[in-house]
């Protein structure tokens, strides 16, 4: 759970002399410093010559130290954010491609928060369509701690961070050699090894190296390796008399499964479970029959769809940092990063779910002359006729999309800051002037085909077969389970260049009062081309409507610019208590994703206003943060893509609206005794749409849809997480239980499809066998909760086509899993 400052998960232990494990030593330190925990230094979303502590910050920040990380043991970037209030976290899709919605901003993926590594964006824009920043980053033991800023001045210091910034801070090598190795196993075939080692290497230089490798079947086992790969990092740094230089090189080669929605049903008692024949906790539609498919293209070539790849990222990243004291009070801070990322993202998307009878009725339009009817038969066993009433206990079929996306990106980021502190009239000012530049090239290609699938774990392919009056096959209309080749096709390329200037001032007006403000002006230029599409007919049902390229392209070249600002104040009226307030005018400029499938798109700048007022308190038994926040989000574009099973196309509806959210965040820890503690994070908010109106078409004429006042999609009004823990055997054993509650949410802006509230229980334990050797145990989702994190986006997010249906597609939490780890420190 989110704590105030870098608190060790070990609790206060007696300080009498005895040999202690590293964890016990940390716990003793935490006990000693508990009344001072707001003195932890903050490095995210600020800049200055002097350091600033948590007590002095005028915005909401959560720090997650390495002990908390090890006890929580998140399996993904988004999973790690579950202990941050104000964030709605959706990590049911696997280790990458998660969703974070911050303070009610209705943007998927990482569209409202930026992901940083050592204070530099992992990628300039963390929400590049099919390339979210969490796909290009993996959490391992080279990371020491995480700082998470919600709102605040993040939008002044970073691009594309209107609602906050998540900063993963790597370890620094000390003056003596040290390291660790960690090995983790899980009941889903998990085998994972992490390591880190740091040592001085002479002449003031320090070397650090670390990384991980893991392989597993996946909690939702597709019948082949779900996750396979790892990364390695090499860091070389030196502290000079007047500065510091570091070079960091990281290579990642990792593939992870993309978990998508599964068939669910609402039963007469009101409970929502997977349909009969499907395991809601551990099942997935993906399976061996859709692992490798050669898909025909409009030019006669074949597209190799390989779902065992999942989301495969190969990334090389080089980071240089240089800090130098220029004299006369001036300092220079330089950061730059170059990355080359190659991403292949394949998945089996459940576009549409229906009964076999309904599908065959719709397919009658394709019945050839002379045929008496249509049947579904299995591709791997053509003699087996699909039981329309009760096959697999459900008689359902899915029109699945076999989608392959290729996205190579080369990016360069540079951030230069000139800093100076000076006194004026008995008061001090800590001023930063910064210049930020980012340039990246991106290619994009996509090819997708629809397949007929039965509804069961590891779904099997079905063929649509024409039969005579006796039920004997006359011919197969589909092609080895493929219903339509090429229902999606894209080919595009572009580049983006961003220039930003920013200025900040931290004004220490009195010993207790500090006022800070900042302004940022940013300009982005996007240019590129999109190849035009055409539909070709190669003579069969499966090849009758293949989208392919024309060889002709449409170019675009557009620039956007916008200023933003922030103003905040912090009044630390006692050593243990303080209040802060802040108002921010932020924005998000269009990116290449705005044009990647439509060169003539007309995107608009998204603007927002964010306010917060907070209270902080820290003493030996209680740490507490309480923050009231307000978010007004303007010019939000809504693309309502509805998949039409009749013609295998996705129809887009575009709308713009605003949102308004008022809320309250709580986070804190209570230490009633040295052996027991309780951590709490909670968020209450009222997230509403404003001005969301559009005219819909119907058979009776136009209909005005008005969703003003409706609850934002996927965002709950109430969520909280409680983590009680005990320290036994003088701190040698730590036991921890986590309870999470998420309130009800909605699939669509019409609020026509409800996602019920749900609860999740997890547990973890740490036992220090010796000062150097520790054992960890983890149990996630102990009760096999089937909490639904999202519905079916392909059914439409303005008004879902699943409205009123008792059988639908949705994505629940991953099922119960167990892990065990051993760690040796040296």
Automatic annotation (TrEMBL):
<feature type="domain" description="TonB-dependent receptor-like beta-barrel">
    <location>
        <begin position="300"/>
        <end position="782"/>
    </location>
</feature>
<dbReference type="InterPro" id="IPR036942">
    <property type="entry name" value="Beta-barrel_TonB_sf"/>
</dbReference>
<dbReference type="InterPro" id="IPR039426">
    <property type="entry name" value="TonB-dep_rcpt-like"/>
</dbReference>
<keyword id="KW-0406">Ion transport</keyword>
<feature type="signal peptide">
    <location>
        <begin position="1"/>
        <end position="17"/>
    </location>
</feature>
<comment type="similarity">
    <text>Belongs to the TonB-dependent receptor family.</text>
</comment>
<dbReference type="GO" id="GO:0009279">
    <property type="term" value="C:cell outer membrane"/>
</dbReference>
<keyword id="KW-1134">Transmembrane beta strand</keyword>
<feature type="domain" description="TonB-dependent receptor plug">
    <location>
        <begin position="54"/>
        <end position="165"/>
    </location>
</feature>
<keyword id="KW-0410">Iron transport</keyword>
<dbReference type="Pfam" id="PF07715">
    <property type="entry name" value="Plug"/>
</dbReference>
<keyword id="KW-0998">Cell outer membrane</keyword>
<keyword id="KW-0408">Iron</keyword>
<keyword id="KW-0798">TonB box</keyword>
<dbReference type="Pfam" id="PF00593">
    <property type="entry name" value="TonB_dep_Rec_b-barrel"/>
</dbReference>
<dbReference type="GO" id="GO:0015344">
    <property type="term" value="F:siderophore uptake transmembrane transporter activity"/>
</dbReference>
<keyword id="KW-0472">Membrane</keyword>
<keyword id="KW-0732">Signal</keyword>
<dbReference type="InterPro" id="IPR012910">
    <property type="entry name" value="Plug_dom"/>
</dbReference>
<dbReference type="InterPro" id="IPR037066">
    <property type="entry name" value="Plug_dom_sf"/>
</dbReference>
<keyword id="KW-0813">Transport</keyword>
<protein>
    <submittedName>
        <fullName>Cyclic nucleotide-binding protein</fullName>
    </submittedName>
</protein>
<keyword id="KW-0812">Transmembrane</keyword>
<dbReference type="InterPro" id="IPR000531">
    <property type="entry name" value="Beta-barrel_TonB"/>
</dbReference>
């Amino acid at each position: 759970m989110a704590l105030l400052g870098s608190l060790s998960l070990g609790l206060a232990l007696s300080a009498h002399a005895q040999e202690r494990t590293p964890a016990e030593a940390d716990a003793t330190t935490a006990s000693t410093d508990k009344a001072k925990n707001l003195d932890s230094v903050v490095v995210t979303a600020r800049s200055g010559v002097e350091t600033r502590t948590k007590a002095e910050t005028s915005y909401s920040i959560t720090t997650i130290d390495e002990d908390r990380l090890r006890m929580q043991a998140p399996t993904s970037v988004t999973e790690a954010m579950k202990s941050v209030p104000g964030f709605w976290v959706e990590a049911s899709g696997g280790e990458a491609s998660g969703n974070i919605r911050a303070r009610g901003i209705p943007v998927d993926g990482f569209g409202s928060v930026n992901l940083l590594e050592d204070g530099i964006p992992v990628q300039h824009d963390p929400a590049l369509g099919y390339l979210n920043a969490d796909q290009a980053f993996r959490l391992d033991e080279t990371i020491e701690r995480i700082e998470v800023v919600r709102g605040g001045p993040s939008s002044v210091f970073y691009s594309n961070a209107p609602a906050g910034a998540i900063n993963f801070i790597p370890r620094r090598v000390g003056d003596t050699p040290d390291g660790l190795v960690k090995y983790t196993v899980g009941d889903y075939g998990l085998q994972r090894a992490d390591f880190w080692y740091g040592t001085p290497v002479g002449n003031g230089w320090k070397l650090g190296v670390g990384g991980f490798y893991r392989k597993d079947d996946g909690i939702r086992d597709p019948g082949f390796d779900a996750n396979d790969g790892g990364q390695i990092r090499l860091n070389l740094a030196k502290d000079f008399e007047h500065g510091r230089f570091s070079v960091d090189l990281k290579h990642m080669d990792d593939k992870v499964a993309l978990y998508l929605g599964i068939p669910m049903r609402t039963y007469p008692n009101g409970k929502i479970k997977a349909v009969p024949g499907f395991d809601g906790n551990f099942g997935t539609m993906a399976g061996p029959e859709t692992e490798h498919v050669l898909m025909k293209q409009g030019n006669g070539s074949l597209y190799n769809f390989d779902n065992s790849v999942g989301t495969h990222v190969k990334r090389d990243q080089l980071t240089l940092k240089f800090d130098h004291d220029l004299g006369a009070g001036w300092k220079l801070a330089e950061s730059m990063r170059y990355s080359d990322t190659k991403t292949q993202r394949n998945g089996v998307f459940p576009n549409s779910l229906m009964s076999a009878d309904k599908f065959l009725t719709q397919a009658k339009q394709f019945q050839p002359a002379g045929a008496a009817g249509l049947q579904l038969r299995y591709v791997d066993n053509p003699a087996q006729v699909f039981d329309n009433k009760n096959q697999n206990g459900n008689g359902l079929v899915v029109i699945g999309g076999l989608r392959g996306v290729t996205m190579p990106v080369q990016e360069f980021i540079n951030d230069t800051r000139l800093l100076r502190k000076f006194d004026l009239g008995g008061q001090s000012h800590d001023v930063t002037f910064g210049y930020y530049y980012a340039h990246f090239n991106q290619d994009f290609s996509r090819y997708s085909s629809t397949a007929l699938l039965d509804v069961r774990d590891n779904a099997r392919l079905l063929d649509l077969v024409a039969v005579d009056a006796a039920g004997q096959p006359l011919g197969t209309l589909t092609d080895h389970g493929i219903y339509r080749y090429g229902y999606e096709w894209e080919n595009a390329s572009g580049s983006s260049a961003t220039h930003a200037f920013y200025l900040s001032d931290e004004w220490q007006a009195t010993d207790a009062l500090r006022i800070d403000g900042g302004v940022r002006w940013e300009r982005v230029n996007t240019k590129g081309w999109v190849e035009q599409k055409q539909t070709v007919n190669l003579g069969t049902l499966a090849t009758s409507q293949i989208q392919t390229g024309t060889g002709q392209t449409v170019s675009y070249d557009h620039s956007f610019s916008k200023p933003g600002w922030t103003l905040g104040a912090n009044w630390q009226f006692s050593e243990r208590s303080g209040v802060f307030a802040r108002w921010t005018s932020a924005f998000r400029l269009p990116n290449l994703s705005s044009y990647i499938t439509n060169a003539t798109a007309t995107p608009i700048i998204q603007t927002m206003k964010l306010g917060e007022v907070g209270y902080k308190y820290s003493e030996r038994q209680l740490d507490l943060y309480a923050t009231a926040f307000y978010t007004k989000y303007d010019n939000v574009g809504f693309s309502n893509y509805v998949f039409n099973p009749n013609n295998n196309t996705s129809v887009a509806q575009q709308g713009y609206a605003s949102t308004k959210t008022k809320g309250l965040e709580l986070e804190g820890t209570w230490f009633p005794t040295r052996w027991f503690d309780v951590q709490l994070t909670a968020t209450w908010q009222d997230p509403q749409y404003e001005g969301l109106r559009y005219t819909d078409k119907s058979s009776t004429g136009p209909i005005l849809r008005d969703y003003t006042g409706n609850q934002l999609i996927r965002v709950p009004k109430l969520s909280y997480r409680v983590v009680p823990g005990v320290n036994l055997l003088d701190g040698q054993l730590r036991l921890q239980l986590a309870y999470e509650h998420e309130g009800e949410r909605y699939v669509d802006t019409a609020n026509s499809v409800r996602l019920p509230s749900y609860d999740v229980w997890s547990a973890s334990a740490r036992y220090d066998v010796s000062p150097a050797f520790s054992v960890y145990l983890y149990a996630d989702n102990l009760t096999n909760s089937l909490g639904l994190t999202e519905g079916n986006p392909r059914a439409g997010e303005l008004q879902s086509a699943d409205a009123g249906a008792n059988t639908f597609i949705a994505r629940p939490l991953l099922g119960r899993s167990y892990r065990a780890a051993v760690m040796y420190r040296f």
